[in-house]
């Protein structure tokens, strides 16, 4: 059985001493003339490829028109949101003036950041931006564009402060404040029924999609995972256990429309959220309530993914309050040591996997050796790897069924 480890490149053998090379003669006059003519022809072709001025003017006009239409759309979105928030007025001080005199976005952003930092809220700028994306009707990546095209008005920022920033000051996760989370190309409902999808989970899910698609890995930490040979139609049978919000199962269903994707969780509340996310994204995943792998047929899966609770009871008490006080405890704590469910899945997964099937399981950053030992003890896997996330921490156990 192969296990993961650092590969060491063998040092190249020293070569024989090379003789001094003869000095090469320069190109002849005819060769130089031919090269010159070739470059002149290329320059002529480039000149011909430059669009005429009237086309450039037309393109500039189209871009300006698109910017105006986008600005109008942003303003309409803001008006609709403010209409929905009608009746909720900003708090006022004793002198009758608003608590915050709102200027432009940068001034407001700085003021709110200072307020949140004074309340010991971690990553105040990032959380403010996350909430702003919701009210601006855009993704986080598009927020700078949205702010440049249609800067929010003072009334809009007052509504944002009143409705959202107060909850951030209480320590609530930004995703729960706006009931929205992003995962790869998906926009998901986020609330305390399930864990908020993490970037580390997003990273290994993308790595799995690339692997199953036969594409090379982009993340350096997952380049040890070689592309799988392409399968016609990619009609995999995939199951995601401890699915929570359904983010991993839905991302796989989106990437492989021909696949048969199912998912399970012990929590009825989490499954209700996962089903809502499937409906909102127009994806088909068969969700069911089950304890780990109960009810799955033998040798039925090509791919099994798992993100089980893996935090120990001791570590749970030390979690950031933003996590500990708001996210569901049952989705975080994996028993006394945090390894109970990981060990069970390592032992039970071979039953439901076909020969050559993939098993990808998220783990804690200090659980790599123990997880590898659990997988090896089954003697049912032909390859085992412990892979790190973008921060260099152990994050994923990958095993291939014999």
Structure described in brief:
With 402 residues, the protein is α/β, with parallel strands linked by helices. It is built from 14 helices and ten strands.
Descriptive notes:
This protein folds into 2 domains: 66-87 and 99-178, no CATH class; 192-401, Vaccinia Virus protein VP39 (Rossmann fold), CATH 3.40.50. It contains 14 helices and 10 strands. By secondary structure, the chain is of the alpha/beta class. Helices cover 44% and strands 14% of the residues. Helix 8 (199-213) runs parallel beside helix 9. It has helices at residues 29-49, 53-84, 105-118, 124-136, 143-149, 154-169, 174-178, 199-213, 247-255, 268-281, 313-316, 321-324, 340-352, 368-378; strands at 2-3, 181-183, 186-188, 237-241, 260-265, 286-289, 301-306, 353-362, 381-388, 394-401.
The side-by-side strand order for the widest beta sheet comes to 1-9-10-8-7-4-5-6
CATH fold title of the largest domain: Rossmann fold
The major sheet is characterized as: 8 strands, mixed
Number of β-strand runs: 10
Q: What is the top-level CATH class of the largest domain?
A: Alpha Beta
Rough outline? globular
Q: Which whole number gives the mean pLDDT?
A: 80
**Low-pLDDT segments:** 1-26, 84-103
Structural class: alpha/beta
Radius of gyration: 28 Å
CATH superfamily annotation of the largest domain = Vaccinia Virus protein VP39
Q: How many separate domains? A: 2
The CATH architecture assignment of the largest domain turns out to be 3-Layer(aba) Sandwich
What's the helix-strand series?
EHHHHHHHEEHEHEHEEHHHEHEE
**End-to-end C-alpha gap:** 10 Å
Percent strand = 5-15%
- Give the count of helical stretches: 14
Assign a percent range to the helix content.
40-55%
